Amino acid sequence: MIRAYRFLLRPTARQAGALGEMLRDHCSLYNGALQERRDAYRHSSKTSVKYADQSAQLKEVRAFDPERQGRWSFSSQQATLRRLDKAFQAFFRRVKAGQTPGYPRFRGIGHFDTVTFPKDGDGCRWDSTPHDRQTRVRLQGVGHVRVHRHRPVRGRVKTISVKREGNRWYVVLACDEVPAEELPPTGAIVGIDVGVVHFLTTSDGEHVGNPRFLQAMAEELAGAQRHLATFPRRARQRTKAHRAAARKVAKLHGRIRRQRADFHHKTARTLVRDHDVIAHERLNMAGMTKSPAPKPDPGRPGGFLPNGAAAKAGLNRCILDAGWAQFLGILADKAESAGRLVVPVDARDTSRTCPECGYVAKGNRVTQAKFECTACGFAANADHVGATNVLSRAGLVLCAAA
After folding, report:
1. Residue 246: which H helix or E strand, with range?
2. Alpha carbon distances (Å) from 148 to 19, 116, 264
3. For labelling alongside 168, which of 43, 178, 346, 397 has CA 20 to 30 A away?
4. Cβ-Cβ contacts under 8 Å for 305 (sequence gap 6 or more)
């Protein structure tokens, strides 16, 4: 299996400065390569610059600017150029598919937060001892940086990435040949229905509360954002006070993100530990959180009718705060490692189908919390009904696969 391990770095003040310079110089390389591609296209629409062309120029770039580009790993700079090439490949793929393409944009240093080393030992070295939680990673141009290794690393380290989040630095190890740690079978199967009132409800009738981390910190976050917005545009990114205000907003968002991820990991671990098969709805998060289309007013040219955009924005905020996509991804990874089975099923009408008689109608869902079949009169909690139907559909999928 392939797994990623993320550990907190504990650099010294000098090393933290060097890490910041590494990000700055890789960002400069990314923007310079993007500018070259833009200029080539403007000069002639038939002229294009590929990754191979820009990679071949790296030696000249490093020789021309040894202080900023020559000090860093050659392979990490190639990875940065590949990152730009992938952005262009995605752009052309969206153009061919008729989607909104989104041309690759220049990155500010505040939005360029990762440097990747494609191979352990080439510009970086993972120095780990089996019984020491305080280990080190050696980075070219930075030195040996202390790492808080809170769990053992299994498998073979393939790539190493250094990432900045606010004032924190992390190292991310991508490992392959990671052995599975299968759990003993329990004989239990469960269906889950995710929601915003309850984070999830199981087919056994158990509710897991929605912690609403963003809502809990909304007042403090709004105050920090208001303070950040008071700085005039000409003072932004130029004063120490503005940088401090921006760091505070980033710190609050980082705290929310870590709280949400911790909750997802713990909830997924409980489900994987107690069940052999876990069924869930196959969700289209992009479609669920899409803003409603405007409704032109036929009686008033240039005017629009109410389309419920404000209410939909509030619902989208709750859905994104719950983080269902991240949770389901974590659940799938933990299940694979533990030898469990995760079954995604069709999400249509799971909360409108009567589990007793199978009648499907919009009127079956009386309220957000109540389900009452208009055909047979069966009544139950709506989320519990949804989880029960998810489990039933998973049984059909497993029977068809067998």
Report:
1. helix 240-274
2. 17, 19, 22
3. 178
4. 295, 296, 297
Tokens 């050696």 sit at which residue? 138
Pick from 26, 9, 122: which is nearest to 68 by CA? 26
Alpha helices in 57-212 (DSSP H): 58-64, 74-96
Tell me which DSSP letter residue 281 carries.
E
Prediction pTM value:
0.87
At residue 215's C-alpha, the angle toward residues 209 and 221, to 5°, is 150
Q: What's the rounded Cα separation, in Å, for the pair 138 and 117?
A: 11
* Token couple for 111: 């939005």
Q: Does residue 249 register a pLDDT over 60?
A: yes
Residue from 317, 267, 309, 265 nearest 291 by CA: 309
CA 26/CA 346 separation, integer angstroms: 43
β-strand 370-372 against 143-148: which pairing, if any?
unpaired
- 287 contacts: CB under 8 Å, gap ≥ 6: none
- Six-digit token pair at 19? 């890490």
The residue type found at 208 is V
Paired with 346 in beta bridges are: 282
DSSP string, 284-341: -HHHHTPPPPPEE-TTSTT-EE---HHHHHHHHHHHHHHTHHHHHHHHHHHHHHHT-E
pLDDT digits (tens, 9 = 90+) for 55-92: 999 999 999 999 999 999 999 999 999 999 999 999 99
Tally of CB atoms within 10 A around 85 = 19
HEC-encoded secondary structure of 6-47 = EEEEECCHHHHHHHHHHHHHHHHHHHHHHHHHHHHHHHCCCC
Q: Can you tell me whether residue 271 is helix, strand or coil?
A: helix
Which two structure tokens, joined as six digits, stand for 180?
């599975």
DSSP 188-207: -EEEEEE-SSEEEEETTS-E
For residue 115, list its beta bridge partners.
162
Model confidence over 149-185: pLDDT tens digits?
A: 988 899 999 999 999 998 899 999 999 999 988 999 9
